[in-house]
Amino acid sequence: MRAAIVLLLTLAVLIGCATAAGTLVETTVSAEPEDEPEEADPENDDDPDEEDEETDDEEDEPDEEGVRVRTSPSRARIYVNGRYAGTSPLLLDLSPGRHRITAERSGYYGETVSVRHEDGEYQEVRVTLEEITGTLLVDADPPDAEIRVNGERLSAGVPHELPIGSQTVEVRSFGYETERVTTRIRENRRTTLRVALDEAPFRFEDLTVSPRVFSPEDPGSHGRIRAESTVSAPGEGRYRILDAGGDQVAGPFPVRFTERRHRLTWDGRDDDGTPLPDGSYRLVVEGEEGHVERRDFSIDRSITRRVRPVYGGSAGTLFAPLPGAMPRGGIQVGGIGLGYYDGDRLLLPLAASLRYSPTDRTETTFSGGAIVRSVREADDDPPSIPFGSISWSRRLFRAGDRADYGVETAGSLLLRGSYYHRSVLDPLLADTGVAAALPLSLEIGPVTLAVTPELAARPVPAAVWGYARAAGVLDVGSVSLAASAALRTTPLDQGIAPEWPAAGGLELHWLIPDTPVTVTGAGTLHWHPQDGWYAQSGAGLWVAF
User: Fold this and answer.
1) How does DSSP classify residue 133?
2) Is the backbone of residue 400 left (phi > 0), alpha (psi -120 to 50) or beta?
3) Is 80 exceeded by the pLDDT of residue 116?
4) Which of 159, 170, 196, 226 could cross-link with 135 by S-S, CB 3.0 to 4.6 Å?
5) From CA 527, how far away is CA 498, in angstroms rounded?
6) Which residues pair with 214 in a beta bridge?
7) What is the sign of the dihedral through the CA atoms of 185, 188, 194 and 197?
């Protein structure tokens, strides 16, 4: 995060580009994490955090009377003068005088306190119960085996204090079969457990490939597949990439399995470095003694997880949406702000957004925020003008082949609904109402040219008008540079004429290498024939999944 902040401050002077040639295959090995957390058991009454949730969230009523008993841990059985009264936390209605209050809970030593109570008085009593424990010592073979009890890692040959009762001990080591042994811990006694693991034959325990659909043109961490195989023991093997017909198109890539988990990345190129065409492929990993695992995936250059800013209710550029959609399940979150201040007037639109693709051809975008502005005398609008929008788009067509800097055309249908307080025409060049647009693009290698005709309507006062929007985008590796412009017409029943101001924007996006994070620097220029022009500048931050 510190790096992202520095990048935001220096983004105006940062321009970078990345090119690659040849095939890219990276392999890494890593041991399993030393302290991998296990899932908490909701049934476990001995959760030490449990009482914090119950006791800290309760607020005492100022007009309460009686004695409130809180225990740590909570849900202890409460007895008053030997008679059962309920479970903690508990408010007791006691008669005046001295009383013995006892708290008991399974697995803990009971505790008794003496309380003197006056009529009409409110008191609070806190009782901390001491857990009943014993010790466990585990001797393991091999000595470096990993030992865990209830998610906590234990050291071999060292006594560890544990709650009394039945405990499951897991012992595992790479190259050996995992053992789970149940033992009983007794009060103030040491339990010794000796576990000898059996050697495991080589086998694949798991193989994952992500993402299942990717575009080699994506410059970020989504522009390649990542395969992770989990094996039971050391061994040798190889990875191969097959096409839909079963022919090998990349590999074999030899590998030595020296740790439980092994990772491989592949960039969608054959052994000569030539990008492979879109289609279905299969990753095959082969190990010793004929063990084989297979996973299917696809290359599809028509999809991209490249960040497109949302500024005006739809994704694309500052003032013109672009056709296309992220892959199924793709998510982009982020926000952008552009400020204007001339010493007398402040205008600062701040927009946050969520972009989601439920299918490979559709996309839904939610956007909201506020236009922060200075207030002058006789100005009826508040200092913060809220806005919100939701848009839906569907890709209508995509023709051509962009691989190897080919040419493609694309088009989408975009529907949008927006709300702006008091229907203020703002720097986003949008208004309260509904709109239908037809983003069209021509892609020539790294360059995208787009035009977006749009019709919009508002209910009060009723009006229909048009927008002319256009954009140009240059995508070079992890850097994107875009320019866009927009101008709307007067209401169509008054004839077709421009309604000023016109707006233009310039934006620079940098995808931080090997991350899903993109930082943005942007500026806009608004011009009116009578009022002249003013400029805005700002920054944004986006994350694509």
Assistant:
1) E
2) left
3) yes
4) 159
5) 12
6) 299
7) positive
The answer to whether domain 201-299 has CATH 2.60.40.2550 is yes
Q: Which residue has the higher pLDDT, 70 or 516?
A: 70
Nearest to 542 by CA among 263, 246, 333: 333
H-helix or E-strand containing 541? strand 532-544
pTM for this predicted structure:
0.58
**Per-residue model confidence as pLDDT tens digits over 457-475:** 988 888 999 999 999 999 8
Angle at 398 between CA 19 and CA 321, to 5 degrees: 75
Average pLDDT rounded to a whole number, residues 442-469: 91
DSSP 491: P
Closest by CA to 534, choosing from 525, 543, 544, is: 525
Q: Which two tokens stand for residue 86?
A: 């309920």
CA torsion 304-306-310-311 (nearest 10°) is -130
What's residue 454's pLDDT? 95
Spatial neighbors of 445 by CB under 8 A, at least 6 apart, are 402, 405, 406
C-alpha distances in Å from residue 220, one per residue of 253, 277, 324, 326, 474: 23, 19, 18, 14, 16
Confidence at residue 246, expressed as pLDDT on a 0 to 100 scale:
94
CATH superfamily, domain 133-196, is: Immunoglobulins (2.60.40.10)
What fold is seen in the domain 331-544? Porin (2.40.160)
Residue 477: half-sphere exposure toward Cβ, Cα within 13 Å: 11
Which whole number is the average pLDDT over 276-290?
92
pLDDT tens-place string over residues 69-92:
999 999 999 999 999 999 999 999
β partners of residue 418: 389, 433
Alpha-carbon gap, residue 53 to 55, rounded angstroms: 6
Closest among 315, 367, 305 to 515, alpha carbons compared: 305
Q: What pLDDT, on the 0 to 100 scale, is given for residue 20?
A: 33
Q: Where in the chain is the domain with CATH 2.60.40.2550?
A: 201-299
Q: What is the distance, to the nearest Å, from the Cα of residue 220 to the centroid of all Cα atoms in its chain?
A: 15
Enter the tokens of residue 49: 């955090």
Superfamily of domain 50-55+65-128: Carboxypeptidase-like, regulatory domain (2.60.40.1120)
In three-state secondary structure terms, 54 is helix
Query: Where do you find CATH 2.40.160.40 in the chain?
Result: 331-544
Ordered alpha helix ranges (H), 304-378: none
